[in-house]
Amino acid sequence: MATRTTRPGPETDPGYPALKAAVIARTGHHYYRDKDGLLFDRLYRRFKACGLTDAGAYLAHLSGPETGPPEWAALESEITIGETFFFRYAEQFAALRRTILPGLIAARAQSRTLRIWSAGCSTGAEPHSIAILLHDLLGQDLPTWRIAITGTDISDAALAVARSGTYGRWALRTLPVEDQERFFVTGPGAPGASRDGSFTLRPHFRRMVTFENQNLLGLLDDGLPRFSDVDLILCRNVLIYFEARVVFDLVNAFGRRLKPDGWLLLGHAEPNPSFCEILDPVNLPGTVAYRPRGAMPAEPEGTPQHAVIAPTPWRPLPAPPAPVRVESTWVSPVRAHPEPASPPPPRTDPLDRIRTLADTGAVAEAWRAVRTALVEGPTQPALHYYDGLLAWSLGREVEAERALRGAIYLDGDFVMAHYQLGLLLTGVGRREAAARSLDNAVRIARRLAAEDEVPEGDGLRAGQLVATAILARDGLREDAT
User: Is the pTM of this model over 0.85?
Assistant: First the structure.
């Protein structure tokens, strides 16, 4: 009988500490200081791809004059966390819809041009979301505008997905079913559709965005000259990778690339008081944006929009049930910093690894990981919740429903589980049951203050969830009449 070999890990591979130190020194990825499990997962994929068995052999492979350069490039792409989903961060997209983009559209009413840069676009959900938003805001005026939306990333694999415009359910998991149908093509005859339930963005949105392989750190040497006089730059959850000096220099470089009345959006975890030395912060509901010094003040919330804007009706979009995470980044051997001698102990939360696997496209592996974690933690509602989301992403609706109901059984007030169960039941045509689940989500969310964050909602406010769930529920009832 064949014996089953145990997969090595960071605690059992004696060559891992030296490899980790070399990786962080080379790339500056200080993000992985306390994330040994996540880093080893990515390293292990490269071990297998190279036909190697351990960290020592892989470090020697990286050091080879012939094998090293291409393998470093592959590894740098591998260790980038490429989370991406549509309309990530409801507050920022509300600010874009209500204040930032209307102001830019009004200011550019004569030239009818807009230049937007999504820096660290990963698989393209962010710039594609901007395209959808502009399509709604400009309406029939869109063909008269010259709009350049460019997404850049260092990963060729991520850019290939972005150019295809084809996504799995995980990237759309927070969108109401009617928006999935409005923005995407599905079904057996759809381009890119597959048995696992892929969704392909409709062509008129895809045509608005182009993608390029670019290294962000080129900005520090006055590179990337094409990215100048930009109206809006989004660089969200990229800077978290780098040390403070590099972050400050990058933000300063972004500011120099903006038009005098342009805007910069960063991730929620990235604003820093030092940025006020070089840019003007603008407080918008739920978020902070930046503008070049002396830019015209933002129009106050509620100011009537200019006639050039023809928005379609809007409903707030919920934030995803996952923690803040990095969208993409760039790495450079030039600005390297050595690993500290005594790094903090690794985090052991299984949900951290599960979410990250799913965010980087390894949905099946994430689902296996959550099933393994459930053996040790069968009474944890959050594990059942992610079991349901991941099973649904894999097209396993029956198992997804069972898991979401398990989360609700363990925690009857798990509002996101009620909400996602409502979306799942809507998708499979069980409208009465879906409406009951959405009613439950509304009832529970109303017990919270409108500004309270919803557990497992990644910043989603209770008031936003109530509004979104009511719209989804009322849509079901309108269809039934």
Answer: no
